[in-house]
Amino acid sequence: MLLIAATLIALSLLGAILLLGFSLHGVWLAWQGKRRRQGFALRVRACQWLSDDLLHLELASPWRLPLPRFAAGQFLTLLAQPEGERPLRRCYSLAAWQARPWHYQLCIKREPDGRMSNWLAEQVRPGLRLQVLAPAGHFHLQDGHGPELLLIAGGVGITPMRAMLQAWAERPLGRHVTLIYAGRDRAALAYHQEFVELAAQRADFRYCPALSRDPHAPPDWQGRLDAARLAAVLTGDCDVFLCAGQALLEHSLALLRDAGVAESRLHWEAFGAQALGAGSGTFALHWQDEALQYTGQPSLLHALHEQGVELPADCWGGHCGSCRVRCSGEVEWRQPPAGVLPAGQILACCCIPRAAVQLAPVD
Length: 363
Fold this sequence. Notes:
It comes from Ectopseudomonas guguanensis. Pfam families: FAD_binding_6 (PF00970), Fer2 (PF00111), NAD_binding_1 (PF00175). This is NADH oxidoreductase Hcr/3-ketosteroid 9alpha-monooxygenase subunit B. By secondary structure, the chain is α/β, with parallel strands linked by helices. The chain has 4 domains: about 1-40; about 40-135, Elongation Factor Tu (Ef-tu), domain 3 (Beta Barrel), CATH 2.40.30; about 150-270, Nucleotide-binding domain of ferredoxin-NADP reductase (FNR) module (Rossmann fold, 3-Layer(aba) Sandwich), CATH 3.40.50; about 285-360, Beta-grasp domain (Ubiquitin-like (UB roll)), CATH 3.10.20. It is built from 7 helices and 18 strands. Strands 4-3-6-1-2-5 form a 6-stranded antiparallel sheet, with helices on both faces. A 5-stranded parallel sheet has the order 9-8-7-10-11, sandwiched between helices. The longest helix is centred in the N-terminal third of the chain and has 37 residues, at about 1-40. The N and C termini lie far apart (about 65 Å).
């Protein structure tokens, strides 16, 4: 009888422990979900200028808690409220990957007219708290990509590629990777020595800088990205990831298509305030009760942000839908949206006006 009683007590205790575990797991998931929807605070753990205009940041939880997981290639949205100004909201690719992240890394280029990048350059210091939204984005590495991977980056576009390389190094899955990194010279290549060392350590990784103005670089590193350089690394079963400014992005895509790479194997993300190139025309732009003006910006979203209307925007590429607005007036779609929109609504990141337009938030 004592044995039976002890067994029953043990089973009861085990059941209570399991129930408590499931309850705590539910609380954890609910808390993580709230963090993803509403954002959370992070503390600047470290900051370092990699060059005159490239700022490397490490962000961690103020309470030493684990951070939401993310896929290699996704971005983090930073929120800021400069004193006396409208709120700022900008997305930056995560520059490092961890299976269970305890900190995030960003590499931010200080743009001459970049409100967020200039604010960060002036304010950032260890201990500064920043409000962020959880990682998101459709541009990321998946297990099904490959078996050959070609990464093409220009400038600060190296940030998602660095994260992809770290994820691949953790789980190669038999894939070979080539990184083409375009820049003026070696000083313009962030994390350059890190890639040199990785190539020396691994036979399944090849590093190919493409330097337009570095006469002292090794001969095979000199010169712009061209058809011959691509032909040397392309294979028929290669998935290609690109992140660069518009000029390099368009040039690379043209070369890859001419080389016969299937559209389904091309994955790209543009970056920078001029990722779409300049628009054209000057038109009246009304946002609720504010009279603004469109003067040739790459998109309506750019025009709104330049004039202090910080419309939510995560991807700037027609994917996330954050910048959806009601629109009255004629517009030109410069890039297609990822989904179907209700009548009378547009994505501000995808359009420029062709006449005076009236914009308003979606109810």
